[in-house]
Amino acid sequence: MAAEVIMPQMGESIAEGTITKWLKKVGDPVKRDEPIFEISTDKVDAEIPSPVAGTLVEIKVPEGQTVAINTVVALIGEAGEKPAAAAAPEAKVAAPPAPAPRVEAPAPAPVRPPEPAPRPASPPLPPPLAAPPAVSTGGTVESFEERVRERSSPLVRKIAQEHGINIREIEGTGIHSRVTKNDILSYIENRKVAAAQTVSAAPAPAAAATAPALPKPSPAEVPAPGRPALVTTDRDEVVAMTKIRKITAENMILSKRTSAHVATVFQVDYTAISRLREQNKDAFLAKNGVKLTYLPFIFRASIQALKEFPQVNASIDGDNIVYHKDVHLGMAVALDWGLIVPVIKNADEKSILGLARASQDLAERARTKRLKPEEIQGGTFTVTNPGVFGSLFGTPIIPQPQVAILGVGAIEKRPVVVTDESGNDALGIRTVGYLALSFDHRLIDGADADKFMASVKNTLEKGEFDLG
Fold first, then answer.
1. Which domains does the chain have, with CATH numbers?
2. Residue in 441, 448, 450, 466 annotated catalytic
């Protein structure tokens, strides 16, 4: 009997996943734990291994399709088993053996409404099976899709409650029209713009009421309120956003709306660390199996400064400030298909060697899609390194719910003014680079941000590190 391959749940709050690529074709042999397809979720991109050894006899969900967790996406038969002959395509969603007929709402008059009563708490999200309709508290027939849409994620429901929004008013883009975080944020933004335009708009001419109705344009033809229409030509290429790109866009917009972003930039002299690296990098690699880069030193200096200035290693929760006792250090990793920020947990307990190993391991597994959901959550402070691409410095966007992020610029030799012990100035060649801190001014004042950066700078320029 063929074994079922299901869409896994990649985190507690994950309800669906998108199959981005099949790594095996129907008829290919597969080994147990060998990756057979790639998925993308709201938390992570990952390769999914085969639960058994055998032959891939059927692919039920094609590339690019989003399905709920626990959906059967493929079948694996015995080793050497040939795929079954092509049959009529199955329905994407199985129906119960004897489904109740769908009840249509009467056109002339609605069902007799019951006495007003509080709406009961929503039960957990049902599996993606056809279900009979239910009667809503208003007396009209409520479809299965409408009930699913109301049972969006806890974050979506919280946002809806805070803004007094009925989720049923929103056109969802998730599975079964489920309202996603992006859907509700776009709805709120568009509602604000539309309200402003309504106030400023002049009354429409009376003649407009007698004008013939024009065909309603499709959603793709209607520009978002407040934005000019996008004009494309046959020379343009239109490609749908990947899952990770959409998530990145949502998080960046959310952060800019949430935090009061301010940046400060310091120049750091890495000459002492450069000499330390040159003297030890070969022996360090031979002994430990990892390269000795500048990043572990920057991590170590940042961790020390975070202990001195706990408001930088904190979060804002409404009117409360959460000071994190442990340092969970996020490190941005650039991928060919986007950006991801794995987290070095309890980084304050690690040495230079431990930080070097952890950072290189997480970066490698991020690029090979082998990160676990918990490894990209829970960061308290983040370091990003655009300097590897030649950038002098940047002002990165703070990852929520953190309150600061450190950007590392290119580290290179430059002519600088140096002063000897006698106070004489001269031009010298030093290894230098810029560090830029983006911080949330709701919590961190400019003076504290600069003191934090001065501490990082001082630690790095001293170059007194134990490489053990």
1. 3-77 (2.40.50.100), 134-197 (4.10.320.10), 262-462 (3.30.559.10)
2. 441
